[in-house]
Amino acid sequence: MKSRSLPFMAILILAMLLLPAPASRAQMPTGKDHLKFQPIERVSGSAGDTVLVSLKFKIDRHWHTYGLIRAVGPDGLGPDPTEISVGPKSVARLAAKPRVIKGGRTHFDSTWGTKIEELSGAVEIMARVVLDRRLKKGTQKGTVTVGVQMCDTTGCMPFEEIQLPIEYLIVAEFIGDIGDTTVDALVSTPKVISAGPSLQSGESEVSTEKQKGLWSFFFYAMGIGFLALLTPCVFPMIPITVSFFTKRHEKRRGKGIQESMLFGLGIISTFTAVGIIASLIFGGTAVQDLAANAWLNLGIGILFMILAFNLFGAFEIQVPISLMNALNKKSQGDGSISILLMGLTFSLTSFTCTVPFVGTLLLSASGGDILYPAIGTLGFATAFAIPFVALSMFPSLLVRLPRAGGWMNNLKVVMGFLEIAAAIKFFSTAEFVFGLGLLPREVFLSIWAGVCLIITLYLVGTFEMKLDSKLEKVGALRALFAVCFATLTIWFIAGALGKPLAADLEALLPPENYHQIIDQFNGASAAVGPTSMNMSHGAAQESMKWYTNLDEAKKVAAKEGKPIFIDFTGFACVNCRLMEKLVFPKPEVQEMFKKFVLVQLYTDKKTEPYITNQNILKSFGTVANPLYVLLKSDGTYVAQSGFQNQYRSNSSLFIDFLKKAL
């Protein structure tokens, strides 16, 4: 019996080995089953160039993977981050860490005990890739490897790597002598960060100065701090600083220098400490977000209104006696605290114009580099504070003049009205970001004209304020200032009626196409994505078409064979308005713009499409507005440039920048 069963058992075992496995085992699901990648578009560039590679994929519903930065909880553990690599090395390599453009969401995860970034839904990741110098003209094949750990609400799949094909079209071979150190230096630094030797800005200059050492970087930051004094939003702080210390020195004589130095210390410490702490907690865009925060601008505007009525004598702002005694037994703690708070307010107010430099420094801080951002913001704030420390000393000199008396109250009243004008600027920024449509350019200028008219009437003695002494006659100096404010009244009225004003002033005002932006962007916020629309930066540009969707602009550029000009801008960006009012309308710039597909991307709202626009901005290595980026018609990166003071006086430099894409 046994002898007859052996052949049967052998045949049965052989059949089991040869038959295919059950379908359930053959199709055991893996993490990649819940991902669907789009084919990677072919990328064009010259050998040695840095190009942008866009990786797009869709994750199934209820599934997610993790961001590109490893998150570690208190116990030292964390989820596996998504990893991106390119190869082979003979073809391409990563120029910098890739960035998530779309599909990322950061939240606190109680399982890991830390903040993590999850990727879900439609995801886009942008990578900067350096093409090897030795590549020959023609099509070169490479790979992009994506490592992911897919998870759902019940658990996670094992970490997997997915290899995707990519083609690089090499349009030109590398040109340059290997012994030429200048060429070597330029190529070794990814081109995506610089816009040419004379037009380098933002992160490229920061990187260059960092390589020279701490002191070089510190003095470079001081130079930028002095340049920041030329930006328009610094001007309103001059009367505020003078009025603040004028009122203090009436009551606290002999402490002018001491309090002025403390004020400077307040500016320096808040710039250095608050900025870095905010970025470490909230990320590299914290300062940018702060400058555009509608509630912050609204709060500063209200604060200036309160200070204005305080200067009018409506009420006194005093620290409670109990708090004074608790802080300082000698009843001097209130002075130090109020001065430091003034320095803090000053720092927050000036962020609107200083954010391009400070924001770029703090972008590197968010990646873990603490020393250089600290040194950079320290140098920047030191230079920025010097003139205002001098201004804060100025009232102490006024108080010592033998004629000090009623004129001091007149000065405070005028300063109070100027603070109301400054408050309108911050109210305007807040309502523009909110999209309320309450303060267009003509209303803004009408209010400023009204303020100047009231100051004029006050100076000629038409009315008096609470603490004023009776005016016997109008002196020569008082009459001179009255004429100045009367001139400003007429000037602002002309501006409200449509007359262009000085570019520095126009940069503070709402744009001329204010209602168009409000209407179309409020409509876009409810849409699936932004759409193209006609946008103008003034009468000279009404015929120019500006797109608000980069993908749509790329399609138009590919169809028409035109390069792309991207203007990263913001609702609260003063330097953006300055470029749009002073440089963009020039005839020679307009002629160059006709050769481009123009794109304008607003980045300073926490809703879509602005979040996506900000992620695109970060893919170019900065969080600073404005940023101007040039792409070829096929979307290949060419160059970028930030705000340059040279552009204001010499538009040919900006034209030279544009020519890089032609």
Describe this structure in words.
This protein has 662 residues and is of the alpha+beta class. It has three domains: 31-182, Immunoglobulin-like; 217-406, no CATH class; 527-659, 3-Layer(aba) Sandwich (Glutaredoxin). The protein has helices spanning 2-18, 23-26, 181-188, 203-212, 214-228, 237-251, 256-282, 286-292, 294-311, 321-327, 333-365, 371-400, 406-434, 441-459, 476-496, 503-506, 514-524, 550-560, 574-582, 587-593, 610-618, 645-649, 651-659, and strands at residues 35-37, 43-45, 50-59, 65-66, 83-87, 92-94, 99-109, 114-131, 138-148, 160-170, 533-534, 545-547, 564-569, 597-602, 627-631, 637-642. The strands form three sheets. Strands 1, 3, 4, 6, 7 and 8 form a six-stranded antiparallel β-sheet that branches. Helix 11 runs antiparallel to helix 12. The longest helix is centred in the middle third of the chain and has 33 residues, at 333-365. The termini are far apart. 43% of the residues are buried. Mean pLDDT is 72; it is low at 21-26, 177-212, 327-334, 363-369, 397-404 and 524-542.
